[in-house]
Amino acid sequence: MGSMAFLHSTSSTQGCFIKYKDEVKNSTVRKLCVRASVATSVPQNLQVEENKGNKLEKFRIGVLGASGYTGSEIIRLLANHPNYQITLMTADRKAGQSIGSVFPHLVKQDLPDMVAVKDADFSNVDAVFCCLPHGTTQEIIKSLPNSLKIVDLSADFRLRDANEYEEWYGQPHRALELQKEAVYGLTEISRPEIESARLVANPGCYPTSIQLPLVPLIKANLIQVENIIIDAKSGVSGAGRGAKEANLYTEIAEGMHSYGVTRHRHVPEIEQGLSEAAKSKVTVSFTPHLMPMSRGMQSTIYVEMASGASIEDLRQHLQHVYENEEFVVLLEDGQVPHTRHVRGSNYCLMNVFADRIPGRAIIISVIDNLVKGASGQALQNLNLMMGIAEDTGLLSPPLFP
């Protein structure tokens, strides 16, 4: 979809705020404004720096779990963000170390050393990215100051049904009040709720790649909600940075394999989102596969079209829904999405194809599992929560080849 121009304005009794992105590629004009509804709750002690004669607000950011892949990706994305400054990073097993000693590709970043969570001082923080494992996250977020904006990248607050969480994650939920407060952060679908949220549950990678094409089609009654089959493939980074025998080079290279067959923990999250779109219970057939690549994700989805609907109807509706979105792109008719074309970026490329079986469609959706499937969408969500232009810090094009 190239660079898209759009004008978005919101007004309130306190004034009118305008965001504009110039479609001319060489233009550097960009107005980053704070919505009035959010500005009233912005901390009073923000850092301010001079930027070409203008005062620019710097929100202070904490990254919990900075030594993992999603944490390091947050740090990479924030490196050129004009409105955020990292003031706190935690990593219990790497406490006392610099980020450059853990991730040499970040050696030039001027950042504080990592500390254990128990030693973290949140008095110098306005917002937090929580990149900790599920289960661990609940107790930590429950103990954070209520003044903080939080985007949680774990699975702990994604499922609204506590019993379902216990069934799929093997332990009871220990922060039920926060679970009720959390907003599910599929950005393009839930933007108004995210803007006013204090705690956002960042979606999983597979659910992001699957819901972005399916939710609009289900809401428009263009596809049947029965017999949805999803064949999904992910790079190895989706399994995290922990040392696991199954993720050794000789276990992964020169082959692929299915895993979590019928019991992958993203299943209830996918079905929750699709069921809300359909206003009825949706059950899917979902099988993920591990691919010998470091990052990237493709979901190939097989659906039955609604009576009277055509492939062109599906394409036109997705084009209408996402035509003004920067990060979700419906490709030209017949063009196949490739994971290599979103590597390192916050983009989701998708397309729709006619199946050889009459009445069925094949939908292909690709993302970078660490960016749009995790840290990039998390940054997109925090931008909304803090009243900053949503695409700030996320417009770097994909890395190719």
From TrEMBL:
Catalytic residue list: 205
One term of GO molecular function: N-acetyl-gamma-glutamyl-phosphate reductase activity
A Pfam family: Semialdhyde_dh
Annotated Semialdehyde dehydrogenase NAD-binding domain residues: 60-197
InterPro entries: AGPR, AGPR_AS, AGPR_dimerisation_dom, AGPR_type-1, NAD(P)-bd_dom_sf, Semialdehyde_DH_NAD-bd
Transmembrane segments: none
EC main group: oxidoreductase
Entry EC no(s): 1.2.1.38
UniProt entry tagged with the keyword RNA-binding: no
GO biological process: L-arginine biosynthetic process
Entries under CDD domains matching the protein: AGPR_1_C, AGPR_1_N
Metabolic or biological pathway: Amino-acid biosynthesis; L-arginine biosynthesis; N(2)-acetyl-L-ornithine from L-glutamate: step 3/4
UniProt KW Cell membrane keyword: no
Assigned protein family: Belongs to the NAGSA dehydrogenase family. Type 1 subfamily.
Name the record gives this protein: Probable N-acetyl-gamma-glutamyl-phosphate reductase, chloroplastic
Originating species: Salvia divinorum (Maria pastora)
Organism ancestry: Eukaryota, Viridiplantae, Streptophyta, Embryophyta, Tracheophyta
